[in-house]
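Handoff note, outgoing to incoming analyst
You'll be picking up this chain. Sequence as last confirmed:
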Amino acid sequence: MRAPMIGSEIERLIQLLSKLPGLGPRSARRAALHLIKRRDSLLVPLSEAMALAGESVRACSVCGNLDSRDPCAVCADHSRDRSIICVVEDAGDLWALERTRAFRGTYHVLGGLLSALQGVGPDDLNLDSLATRAADPAVREVILALNATVDGQTTAHVVTDRLAEADVSVSRLAHGVPIGGELDYLDDGTLTAALRARRPL
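Most recent structure output, in case you need it:
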């Protein structure tokens, strides 16, 4: 039996890094080596930042965004247009839309998309709180900014049905978002154009 080339601590670091999106085993090994070589300037500050984030970051009780305060920075911003709610799958999509600086309304994070294959049903999403928010007379429009995938379209139909009793206009991002595309991977110009060209469902 061949002796292990690296210690268990480094192996655990590599295994954990390989679970991150976009990092396979080789990339995780390179990242681990890079972190260890830069222990004082990178590894230690990163571990402290991760520990602090793990302790303090939580879901906003209003919209579901991730932040260290509750309500989150977006919900606490009184300059935002509270008559419009933009519905997204997760916080990454919210951050992608915020990067464009094209939207000044509020958000609602569903926490996922409906998926029969993954066993995600309506009860697993933040649909009830969205219906409650949309029922507020001050809300005029709900924008569905969901991925242009089968699961995204299915979720959009369910959300539209759930909002049928609310006195709001329901729109969705224009088809500038490619079929099969995911919001977090789109450039700011595409997202801005898609927001501006939204249309009613």
